[in-house]
Amino acid sequence: MKNFYIYVDGMAYLGEDPEKTYKCDIGGNGWNVSNHGSQNVIILSNESLPKKIEGNRNLKSELDRILIRMKNEVMNPEKIVIMVFDES
Questions:
Q1: Closest CA to 3 of 60, 85, 88, 61
Q2: Cβ(64)–Cβ(16) under 8 Å?
Q3: Separation of alpha carbons 60 and 63, rounded Å
Q4: Domain-wise residue ranges, the chain
Q5: Residues in contact with 24: Cβ distance below 8 Å, sequence separation at least 6, in sequence order
């Protein structure tokens, strides 16, 4: 199984912080309505290793988290790097 690391603007991606949130509109399941809610803040760090992401499906889920923050204009990265490695 392939494993991945994600770097956002040179900083290690560590996932979501369950302790910190921001207010935003969340999806309306296809309806054009404002649904107010909150999302967890993404953690980026220069001082630790990135979160180890196992498998393609989990990679997609983590990238979706970043893309949602970009849609909500919370993040505006210039560069996202995905590093692939095998643990065999």
A1: 85
A2: no
A3: 5
A4: 2-86
A5: 36, 37, 38, 39, 72, 74
Residue 15 to residue 26: CA distance in whole angstroms: 19
pLDDT tens-place string over residues 5-49: 999 999 999 999 999 988 887 765 556 666 778 889 999 999 999
Predicted TM-score of the model (pTM)? 0.85
Question: Residue 7 is which amino acid?
Answer: Y
